[in-house]
Amino acid sequence: MLKIGSRPHPAFERLARLVTLDSDALSLLEAAARQTRRIDPRAELAFERQEIEYPVLLLDGWAMRVRQLADGGRQVLSFVLPGDFIGLCGFSRPRSTSAIVAITACTVCRAPLPGTSPQLDGLYAVSRTVDEAHLLNQIARLGRMDAHDRILDLLLEFHERLELAGIAGEGSFALPLTQEVLADALGLTPVHVNRMLQQARKMGELEWVAKQARLNDPAALAAKLGRLPVSVRVQKSWR
Amino acid sequence: MLKIGSRPHPAFERLARLVTLDSDALSLLEAAARQTRRIDPRAELAFERQEIEYPVLLLDGWAMRVRQLADGGRQVLSFVLPGDFIGLCGFSRPRSTSAIVAITACTVCRAPLPGTSPQLDGLYAVSRTVDEAHLLNQIARLGRMDAHDRILDLLLEFHERLELAGIAGEGSFALPLTQEVLADALGLTPVHVNRMLQQARKMGELEWVAKQARLNDPAALAAKLGRLPVSVRVQKSWR
DNA sequence: CGCCAGCTTGAATCTACTCAAATCTTGTGG
DNA sequence: CCACAAGATTTGAGTAGATTCAAGCTGGCG
Q1: Residue B147 and residue B21: Cα distance in Å, rounded?
Q2: Torsion over CA: A118, A124, A130, A135 (sign)
Q3: Which of A13, A62, A210, B53 is deepest in the core (most CB within 10 A)?
Q4: What does each of the 239 residues of chain A score in pLDDT, given as a tens digit?
């Protein structure tokens, strides 16, 4: 497996935890990861307007799926973290539906086409399911939570996802977002996000300085917000 | 193709418009549709807790995907209309994530398993993509629209979807929802939904009596709300 | 060292919520 | 076919959470 020193690369760590991958599938992915592309912070992962030709795997960095609104506003639809695939659905739809924008510097690679390997197809199916779950979470957040809960719920999701990739522990994780991006994701104004963050800090739920965040008691928080105790994401395929 | 009198059945009308289906794929679907199941209004389409064994096609009626919240609240995540598939993703996830509940009486049938026919797999891929688009729409609605716009945007989506199934025209369509369900979908209170509806009626944007709705100028509304002129949903598959 | 993006703070306003009650509909049993 | 009950919609008054606008910080970077 692709490694950094002695540990698996976060993206691969995540994928290996989503489904068990045999050496065949692994080597396909590793081969794919040998040729990477680097994306600058505010750059688009150029998959809109034009037909997308292959799915992409995000190896490092954060990206977001955004929709530009008629009134000049912006909605962050979802976040893309290491080990996430982009464009699995076959993306060719009217643009403006959504664009993918790099938040930090990112490295990506082409992912093998669906149909290459049954194992990989299984992985893709699971990945799509997890992505969908995140969209559903986002809907529930926006629909039924107040500002404070929205923020902490999203942070919990980040923590959970990064933990799966092995790059979060003890409640702390890198959080390379501006409050404005957070606001655009959560349907709030930056000003109000700021106030709620301060409140959360004062209440000792959260620390967040220098792009490094720490949730003081993720489990308790998750319980309070009614997040499912996110058990394993075991998945049974059709066949 | 499955028909009602001389017209194609709405569900089939929709599917045929999503992708072109050869007689092979069609007969598979028709065979599936020969054995239907009827679901009562408030019943669950029983796909949660237990592992789902096959995908399902909604032939008639309205259903919704809901999440029950810790605080007793409820979020309607999405709506399921005739011609929509349920459980395409391989649903086996911790329950409480979401349940599917019939709004009206529904008739459903088993859908052929993925992998049965390449054409059908293509259809499933498109269907998933469209579903995803609806989730993204829902996120943008909840995140960045005010109450009035949320309501009308959702109604526009209904209209658009039902039109694709051939069961809406001239802006009017069956709308078998209570204001409370609408509120639970839009992250509002029933009271406020009611007020906004009255306002919309007064402004001549909307009529809605006896479960029959009519948008007076869907195109103008869509433009005002910045809905993409929902062009064809053409879709290029990977292979 | 100075600039700019991002963060923080304050005050006024407004959208949407809450609670509560009245009215209208629909379906059901007598 | 009517009466009633249950569900759904409507209306009102008071409140709260989030927004807007505006200005002052702060720290990382050229």
Answers
A1: 40
A2: negative
A3: A62
A4: 677 767 889 999 999 999 999 999 999 999 999 999 999 999 988 655 555 678 999 999 999 999 999 888 999 999 999 999 998 876 555 454 788 999 999 999 999 998 899 999 999 999 999 999 999 999 999 999 999 999 999 999 999 999 999 999 899 999 999 999 999 999 999 999 999 999 999 999 999 999 999 999 999 999 999 987 554 444 444 33
pLDDT digits (tens, 9 = 90+) for B57-106: 999 999 999 999 989 899 999 999 999 999 887 655 545 478 899 999 99
CB contact under 8 A, B230 and A94: yes
In chain B the first and final C-alpha atoms are separated, in Å, by: 26
Whether the CB of B180 is less than 7 Å away from nucleic strand D comes out as yes
User: How many angstroms separate the CA atoms of B44 and B61, rounded?
Assistant: 13
Secondary structure (DSSP) of B145-162: --HHHHHHHHHHHHHHHH
* Contact yes or no for B116/A77 (Cβ under 8 A): no
In angstroms and rounded to an integer, the radius of gyration of the C-alpha atoms of chain B is: 18
- Residue identified by tokens 């945007």 is B153
Residue B189, CB, strand C, below 7 Å = yes
Q: For strand C, is any atom closer than 7 Å to the CB of A194?
A: yes
* Distance from C-alpha of A180 to C-alpha of A190, rounded to nearest angstrom: 5
Task: Give the separation between CA A204 and CA A43, rounded to whole angstroms.
Answer: 35
Residue A148's alpha-carbon distances to A27, A43, A155, A187, B161, in angstroms, are 44, 30, 11, 12, 35
CA of A42: nucleotide with nearest C1':
C5
Give me the helices (H) in A116-210, please: 118-144, 147-164, 179-186, 190-202
CB-closest option in B69, B97, B187 to A136: B97
Residue type, A20: T
Give the C-alpha separation, A196 to A210, whole Å. 18
In chain B, what residues touch A157 (CB-CB under 8 Å)?
Answer: none
Quick one: CA dihedral A222, A227, A229, A233, positive or negative?
negative
Distance CA A135, CA B140 (A): 11
- A-chain CB neighbours of B96 within 8 Å are 228
Pick the residue from chain B with its C-alpha nearest to A50. B236
